[in-house]
């Protein structure tokens, strides 16, 4: 009833507003909700005009679900009045130049180092204020994720020479234990104390980890890695400083080139002697591992790390789409491409592992037993070095690693940038370039600890605690907020407005029950059985577990902290403040279609 009265008042005042002059009529509009929330006016082509289903000033209307629908329905006494306010502060939201820019950006974000670097390692290991929390997690990832690209850049630069430096034991950084077991010398005998040239190049020349006793004494910053990381962040800045219109063009190269390299490496790996051994190990399941909670935790973390829910990136990218963009089809396409790429990458890596096992005359399961995520920089680098045309394959391989990482960095920082620009538009919207520069500088300074001699220990700590468990917890809170408090019926009605159809019963059951239960199981399992963190010969001391938990909690602690802040600062009785805190408020750039259940 109140909605109809608001619409009638708009129609009555339409003529008066037109008389205020053409300048004001061209200003972008806002919908002011009864609780002070603001919703941006969208595309005037959508339900514009004073016809049926639209308000005369161009704002569309919709039939909202009943307050009783869905868990956490809006109280019967909630206000639903809409007040129209004109403002000249709004700016048109940036959009993608082409649909393929969006798809390649999302695919480039999903298909990243996690597919080539983390997924094969996980298979090998296992036998085959939410908004603020999201931003903090994204920053943590930027602190260590780009360091891996700096390592890859170091390898790339070192590849431009006739003999790759990780193929011989005659370099200044090599020790007496260095043994080139893939040489033609038949008298070479591999022992438990032997180390390969590739391992010593990675640990003693690139990381220089031998100069640090552990996390308690990281040592100095490696100036070579500092310069490599500076170059990486320079590329990142000039790719995203102008927004998605520039980064959308860059991903045409960074998202497609890796596939060409993967295919080349797959063909080369399949022709190596012993490749079949790695393929058998890759495809043969170890059913006993399914009884281990570690397998499920690793699997869940890998899915979240790869597809990217909970990082805010997908929300940021989607916000630049038209309101009626078919996000359902995009999600299916992106997920399918991501899974297929991971599967393909597994063949690329495991064919080489089989080759290495054949050369060493040992089992595949022991080739990279202690290499961990360093699989690429030791085992694969060594395998490439012993191939014909080693320099060529090394260059394209590490160039691929860098491009995979750049895609994810573009996306991760764009998620933070979009969130901050939407939260503080008056302060940052016209200063995007400077804000992006400041953000990149913060990320670079935050990554300095990973560039020290003990930086690899820091990277491992962040990988174990700062991303997987924290992201899973944030997604758990998001699922609870959407399915229980916002309500699945209301959420499905929103999807129907956007796509023209509602999600089926299967999706509703997943949102309400299956996903929360599974995520809670993963969280509890991680807390009950913390991982035993080890890197090379260094076993992390017990105090690092506490430090890791603090890093993980520091991100999603924003959620309960903001809840307490809201309860303390909002007006009304405690019950009114609580109801207001769990009542959805329409807002954002795509609020053309408003569900008016607002307190």
TrEMBL record:
Amino-acid positions noted as binding Na(+) in the UniProt annotation, renumbered to this chain: 108, 110-111, 115, 306, 338, 404, 407-408
Subcellular location: Membrane
Keywords: Disulfide bond, Membrane, Metal-binding, Sodium, Transmembrane, Transmembrane helix, Transport
Record carries keyword Transport: yes
InterPro entries: Na/ntran_symport, SNS_sf
A Gene Ontology term for the protein's cellular component: plasma membrane
Listed PROSITE patterns: NA_NEUROTRAN_SYMP_3 (PS50267)
Annotated GO MF terms: metal ion binding; serotonin binding; serotonin:sodium:chloride symporter activity
Annotated Pfam families: SNF (PF00209)
UniProt main location, coarse: membrane
Biological process, per Gene Ontology: amino acid transport
Bias-annotated ranges (Basic and acidic residues): 1-23
Topological category with respect to the lipid bilayer: Multi-pass membrane protein
SS bond partners: 169-178
SUPFAM superfamilies: SNF-like (SSF161070)
Segments traversing the membrane: 130-157, 221-238, 250-276, 296-320, 332-357, 377-404, 434-459, 465-485, 505-526, 546-568
Region (Disordered): 1-72
Keyword Nucleotide-binding attached: no
PANTHER family: SODIUM-DEPENDENT SEROTONIN TRANSPORTER, SODIUM/CHLORIDE DEPENDENT TRANSPORTER
Protein's name according to its UniProt entry: Transporter
Organism: Oncorhynchus tshawytscha
Lineage of the organism: Eukaryota, Metazoa, Chordata, Craniata, Vertebrata
Name of the gene this protein is made from: slc6a4a
